[in-house]
Amino acid sequence: MISTQRVSVFIVAIFLCFILLFQILQNDGPSINDIKNISYRPFRPSIHDSILALFDSIRHPITENYTDVSGTRFLLEQPPIWTKPLKKKVLIVDIDTREPSGDNQILNSAKMDWEKLDVSGGELVSNGIMNHYLYAQIHGYDYKFFQAQHIKGHHDTWILPHVLYDLLPDYQFVVTMDADVTITHLEVPLEWLFNRWGLTKHTSISMPWDQEEILGGETVSIDSKGLQVLNTGVVAVQNLEYTFEMLEAWKDCTTEKRYSGCGRWKEEWSHEQRAFSEYIRYDFNPAGDNIVEIPCDDAMGWPGMMHEYEGQIMSDCNGTFFRHHTLRKDKTKESASSAVMQVLSEILQHELLEHKDKVWVKEAERIEVDEAPSHVENVDLSG
């Protein structure tokens, strides 16, 4: 027998349904026929949500030491400053004047052929975009490809400080990489790297020490004061008032309104990179942590580069977290492939081990039965 309380609840539910239906009809909502004709559409998660879920099992915690597949441990030497995911407060941006929309390029609607992907021009840019975009999706960062206009009378690398200045107001951090830079440990978040490198709440900009390079018997990687230059292949900027002052001085350096002689670097190598090292870093680091230098081994070169270019590259920088293929653009595709396969193999390994009782079938040990002896008839040998 149904209780009085259950009957009351049932009546209230029916009454609320009639009120809802009446409001729909009164507000020119869908008719009964419309409701009947609504087709069922199964829920399909977005690519972004799928990637976040897929990589969740191996995403490295922000405040814990990291051990790579070789067993090498990377310690956080100081108490972590960044302890929570920044997600959409971070923008990863690829900045380039090239448009990767040609044949077999990422912004062309035709299906890409990875095996035939070249590593020059728009295809090099495409390779970089795929690696950097995937990394952004894994950690929930925002991503943009910014196709910049040429700056008259300047090498195209001068677009960097201009674009950073324009994009930074909408984010806490903007991080950019050259097209020939590959993020090798896709599971390691930027927040962990910020902690490793010592970026503070007051850090305006961070970039790696360049490798020592010898050409014609002379070192070409030091500034006029003899200090090793910084490399703009990987740059992180933080949204601070001081950062905008720094970026403004940097992007306007070649006007020589502030820095006499900076116009030299409009088209002479290494362009905006050399201008930063010659002028900006000496004027905009009063606290010592306004500009933070990233270790060369973390974000320059690749394993074996020093030996491959013996006598030219004097720094053994292996691109531990960001491989910068300055002299071997063709290596970017191999690095990108290895980075993806490494994290996918870890994901599959975790999944298989978690369900090994279902997927790992061991056949029972076979018991070998000795062959029965041949039947021999008794023979009477007694004559």
Automatic annotation (TrEMBL):
Organism: Trematosphaeria pertusa
Keyword check for Transmembrane: yes
Protein name: Glycosyltransferase family 34 protein
Biological-process GO terms, alphabetical: protein N-linked glycosylation
Taxonomy, superkingdom: Eukaryota
GO MF annotations, alphabetized: glycosyltransferase activity
GO CC aspect terms: Golgi membrane
Transmembrane annotation, as ranges: 7-25
Similarity comment: family membership: Belongs to the glycosyltransferase 34 family.
Keywords: Glycosyltransferase, Membrane, Transferase, Transmembrane, Transmembrane helix
InterPro entries, sorted: Glyco_trans_34, Nucleotide-diphossugar_trans
Pfam family, one: Glyco_transf_34
